[in-house]
Amino acid sequence: MNSTEDRLSSLKAFDSTKSGVKGITDNGILEIPHIFINKDIINNQVKPSKSNFSIPVIDLKDTSSRGSSVHWLMINKLRDACEKGGFFQIINHGIPVDVMEEMIDGVRGFHEQESEVKKEFYSRNESRTFTYNSNFDLYQAKSTNWRDSIGCVLAPQAPDPEELPIVCRDIMLKYSNHVKNLGLTLFELLSEALGLKPDHLKEMKCAEGIYMLGHYYPPCPQPELTLGFTSHTDSGFLTILLQDEIGGLQVQYEDQWIDVPHVPGALVVNVADMLQLITNDKFKSSVHRVIPKKMGPRISVACLFRTHFVEAMSSTLLYGPINELLSEENPALYREITTRDYIVQRYSQGLDAAPTLSHFKLERESARA
User: Domain with 88 in it: what CATH number?
Assistant: First the structure.
């Protein structure tokens, strides 16, 4: 077989086990299978960053004191974070620490069940409410990531509890309620940071859909040869990430990779592609990745404020740069698109392909004319 046929055969064999990366590590391997070897990471080994940039930490305790000088200092810090790195951490966000810890334990509990129990949920059908698999872009990406994931649609319709695994059912529902409320607060603050009325982004339905991803990164015997999550930007409008203390998340800033450290009690928030589009590049959806570790497992829980696959396929709502942010000096950079346009483009390629937003730039259409 040629290399393409060999890789496809190996991918199918891996997928058919329905045991993910954890199933491989449970066998006590000393070398990673060839489908996980990432030539780009080998040729550009991870080096310590020389940048002085650090991920800002924003205190939300004064969100209710709208109009005060403290509130506007917070808004200014939020605006600065979204315009520069697109990443920030938040403290005093209202989600109890014990709920966050229980959510991490719930994701770990699912992935560390007996393989036969997990296989019931293994699927690549994005229309399902709850799925478990390894690498959503397994057959599109150039190399496979060292990661297993569960995914669940949390909003606009809350999932039927009976569709969720018992091991993490209660905490997923509890945590999702907290995240919904936090998301509404953040979109109000982001609206203010854009100079708009607080309800603007909510009225655009940016906060309606929530998709949860529970990632499990097993210990990797050769972390220098692969990635836990390849370089990418997030879909949707905003992501709220809960991560454990293992580390490995990095964001790209001025061609340097910056570590996003674990801050006890904090949540990581980042701008996603659709928010960059509607703000006409004012807010940045930054490229980020996860470096695997020999220790672990690493656990993270990402809640993406986005329209999920099924809803996106029937949506006719158009999103383009917000009119109030445009002027002769700042013309629209993107054409109006539906969430279906975005999702179709996103799922047609691996995460290691060209950035999804680049397909919707107006300059691109002009160049083709």
Answer: 2.60.120.330
364 part of a folded domain: no
The predicted pLDDT at position 343 comes to 86
Which tokens hold the place of 348?
């047609």
Which are the contacts of 202, defined by CB distance < 8 A and separation ≥ 6? 184, 187, 188, 191
Any domain includes 328? no
353: buried, middle or exposed (CB in 10 Å: 19+, 13-18, 0-12)? middle
Residue 47 lies in a domain: yes
Residue 116, Cβ neighbours under 10 Å: how many?
A: 9
Tell me the C-alpha to C-alpha distance, in Å, between residue 350 and each of 142, 283, 320, 344, 361: 7, 24, 24, 12, 20
> For residues 291 and 248, is the Cβ–Cβ distance under 8 A?
yes
Q: Which amino acid is at 118?
A: K
Give the integer Cα–Cα distance in Å for 367 and 279. Answer: 23
CB 122 within 8 A of CB 133: yes
What does the pLDDT look like over 250-285, one tens digit per residue? Answer: 999 988 999 999 999 999 999 999 999 999 999 999
| Rounded-to-integer distance, Cα 239 and Cα 349, Å | 21
Cα separation, 147 vs 291, in Å, equals 11
257 is written with which tokens? Answer: 């990779």
| 3-state secondary structure labels for all residues of 291-331 | CCCCCCCEEEEEEEECCCHHHHHHCCCEECCCHHHCCCCCC
**DSSP 8-state code for residue 238:** E
Domain count, the chain: 1
348 falls within a domain: no
Stretch (H or E) spanning 130: strand 130-133
| Residue 252 DSSP code | E
pTM of the model: 0.94
> Which pair of tokens denotes residue 6?
């060999």
DSSP character string of 86-108: SEEEEES-S--HHHHHHHHHHHH
Q: What is the span of the domain harbouring residue 102?
A: 3-311
